[in-house]
């Protein structure tokens, strides 16, 4: 299991990749940067997985329900060995395996296609039920956006996870209070989030989604909790570490210009994990 | 050719104007206000604008409720999230209720571009067309989207208005009064008829010019209403030109090509070739490159026209 400092270095690397990728090829930088700490912990510390054998039956699975955050996922996958780093630069280009939103049939290692919001938790439930049927101790992690949980299907699925006591499933809610048309509170309020999941019968944990200690503790507590699914409500900041992106809805889906990208990389700072991407 | 604008821009303009003219007009959105160009209306008429959040099924139901209480709601989102995600809500709440709901969607088809297959609706015309009560309109450009938006507000009943994301040349200026269900003849011809909808109308016009250079005289029809389809126009063209090509930014299954094939085979069987996506999802990429890769260019229409002509029983 990677240390807190190691996860921070990896997360910095993922954030740098996200800036480089979206600046070169468009996409959604803000939410992805905000979730980088959580995804770093998952791919480099938490998931029991084997990038050289992505279809291993007993792997832990990560379901990215909010598919527009895929730059964070592609970076974590490339950096953990699912595919060559050089492939990252094909993101959003024609004939690429790295589609604008995840395409499972193109890229081994993706657990599902996503992009259309609200579907991931149901799929994760199916995987968690299957693990139980097969007597596998593998776990399922699912990440959703806070705006995303406005979709009714999320709450249908939340009932299912709880009804079947899926304690092998953790849902992480990326609570940055941002969606496309503004702040989630103003667009369609979803609060109180933790109380809703508690009322649905979930084990609910609230954390600062940028505090790696808290992220690790939350996953530890999930692993030790029996009898109910765990919801981790992670308070995050969109574009965390990039001053002009933080708290700004516009950075949900806007690509940084080359000047903006340079400033972002300066502010995010260097990483001791891996090298910057080189675009041909 | 005219100004380069997207269909959604024509829609946004028409909705804004209608807001001042008719206080029964209301609008709903599911967290995509600017993308669908409903933000102009939202800023001017905040009390008649309802942001529903990322909850398209709820949005369609709410729109139906407003319609059943006398308002004329325009529910807006991307094509996939209406036609696909909220399909059954559209069926029951809007169509079966005969509710006066207008569903205006952008980001239809491959030209949605880099977002990729998940966001590129290529089967929405088929599913919307199969719904009883539904009117399905696919405007060619911003001008026709403007006209169609206004016309759909005047029609009593559910309408699916399919708008593009990518700016395209305006071709329909000066076509005369727009009427739902009445196709527009762009040009006459005797060898083959190119029937197109959406952004493929412009591509069909260019194709007819390319064909003309080879001495082939192609008629072009802008079939902006897919349902009710203009049977009279199709039959007349089949009889006059003896073969037909359809072109749409949609699967060849069940869309414009399907609708025209149904009319042709029942009334006036002639060779027909459908240009559209071939039972496949799209992918990420620049719109024009995608159109090329998936066979939706003027060159593809030219080739289809030649194929259709070669199959005529009595060759000219
Ligand atoms: C079903 C569906 N409706 C609409 C969209 C368009 N869309 C993409 S991202 C997004 C906002 C998502 O908000 P949130 O989940 O809070 O993610 P964040 O902005 O924090 O990255 C919307 C509405 C979609 N992808 N899927």
From TrEMBL, chain A:
- The domain of life for this entry's organism is Bacteria
Q: Which Gene3D superfamilies match?
A: 3.40.50.970
Keywords for the protein's UniProt record, in alphabetical order: Thiamine pyrophosphate
What residue stretch is flagged as signal peptide?
A: none
* Cofactor(s) demanded: thiamine diphosphate
Q: Which residues form the Transketolase N-terminal domain?
A: 21-269
The record ties this protein, via InterPro entries, to: THDP-binding (IPR029061), Transketolase_N (IPR005474)
PANTHER family in alphabetical order: TRANSKETOLASE N-TERMINAL SECTION-RELATED
Q: What is this protein called?
A: Transketolase
Species annotation: Aquibacillus salsiterrae
UniProtKB/TrEMBL annotation, chain B:
Pfam families reported in the protein's UniProt record:
Transket_pyr, Transketolase_C
Q: Which Gene3D superfamilies match?
A: 3.40.50.920, 3.40.50.970
Q: Which residue ranges does the record assign to the Transketolase-like pyrimidine-binding domain?
A: 5-170
Give the keywords, sorted: Thiamine pyrophosphate, Transferase
What SMART domains has UniProt attached to this entry? Transket_pyr
What would you give as a GO molecular function for this chain, any one?
transferase activity
Required cofactor names: thiamine diphosphate
The family note in this entry says: Belongs to the transketolase family.
Q: What is this protein called?
A: Transketolase family protein
């Amino acid at each position: 299991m990677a240390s807190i400092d190691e996860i921070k270095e990896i997360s910095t690397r993922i954030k740098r990749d996200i800036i480089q990728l979206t600046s070169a090829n468009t996409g959604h930088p803000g939410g992805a940067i905000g979730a980088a700490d959580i995804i770093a912990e998952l791919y480099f510390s938490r998931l029991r997985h084997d990038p050289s054998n992505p279809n291993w039956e007993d792997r832990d699975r990560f379901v990215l329900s909010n598919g527009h955050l895929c730059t964070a996922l592609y970076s974590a996958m490339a950096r953990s060995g699912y595919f060559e780093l050089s492939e990252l630069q094909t993101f959003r280009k024609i004939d690429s395996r790295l589609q604008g939103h995840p395409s499972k049939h193109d890229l081994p290692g993706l657990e599902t296609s996503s992009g259309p919001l609200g579907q991931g938790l149901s799929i994760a439930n199916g995987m968690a039920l299957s693990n139980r049927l097969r007597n596998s101790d593998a776990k399922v992690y699912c990440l959703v956006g806070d705006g995303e949980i406005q979709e009714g299907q999320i709450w249908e699925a939340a009932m299912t996870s709880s009804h079947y006591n899926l304690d092998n499933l953790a849902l992480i809610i990326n609570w940055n209070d941002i969606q496309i048309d503004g702040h989630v509170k103003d667009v369609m309020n979803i609060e109180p989030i933790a109380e809703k999941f508690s009322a649905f019968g979930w084990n609910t944990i609230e954390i600062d989604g940028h505090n790696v200690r808290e992220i690790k503790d939350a996953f530890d507590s999930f692993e030790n909790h029996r009898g109910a699914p765990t919801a981790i409500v992670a308070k995050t900041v969109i574009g965390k570490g990039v001053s002009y992106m933080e708290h700004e809805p516009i950075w949900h889906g806007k690509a940084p210009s080359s000047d903006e990208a340079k400033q972002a990389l300066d502010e995010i700072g260097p990483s001791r994990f891996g090298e910057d991407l080189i675009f041909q | 050719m005219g100004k380069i604008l997207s269909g959604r821009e024509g829609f946004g303009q028409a909705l804004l104007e209608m807001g001042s003219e008719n206080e029964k007009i209301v609008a709903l959105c599911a967290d995509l206000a600017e993308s669908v160009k409903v933000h102009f209306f939202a800023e001017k008429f905040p009390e008649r604008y309802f942001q529903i959040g990322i909850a398209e099924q709820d949005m369609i139901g709410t729109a139906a409720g407003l319609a059943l209480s006398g308002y004329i709601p325009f529910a807006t989102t991307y094509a996939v999230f209406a036609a696909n995600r909220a399909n059954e809500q559209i069926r029951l709440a809007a169509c079966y209720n005969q509710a006066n709901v207008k569903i205006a969607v952008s980001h239809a088809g491959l030209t949605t571009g880099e977002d990729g297959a998940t966001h590129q609706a290529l089967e929405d015309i088929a599913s919307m067309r199969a719904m009883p009560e539904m009117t399905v309109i696919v405007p060619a450009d911003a001008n026709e989207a403007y006209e169609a938006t206004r016309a759909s507000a005047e029609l009593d009943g559910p309408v699916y208005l399919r708008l593009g994301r990518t700016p395209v040349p305006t071709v329909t200026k000066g076509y005369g009064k727009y009427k739902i269900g009445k196709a527009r003849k762009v040009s006459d011809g005797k060898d083959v008829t190119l029937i197109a909808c959406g952004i493929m109308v412009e591509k069909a016009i260019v194709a007819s010019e390319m064909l003309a250079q080879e001495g082939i005289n192609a008629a072009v029809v802008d079939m902006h209403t897919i349902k009710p389809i203009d049977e009279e126009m199709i039959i007349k063209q089949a009889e006059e030109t003896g073969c037909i090509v359809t072109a749409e930014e949609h699967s060849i299954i069940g869309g414009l090509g399907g609708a025209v094939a149904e009319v042709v085979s029942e009334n006036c069987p002639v060779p027909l070739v459908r240009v559209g996506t071939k039972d496949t999802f799209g992918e990420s990429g620049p719109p024009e490159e995608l159109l090329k890769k998936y066979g939706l260019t003027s060159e593809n229409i030219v080739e289809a026209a030649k194929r259709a002509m070669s199959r005529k029983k009595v060759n000219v």
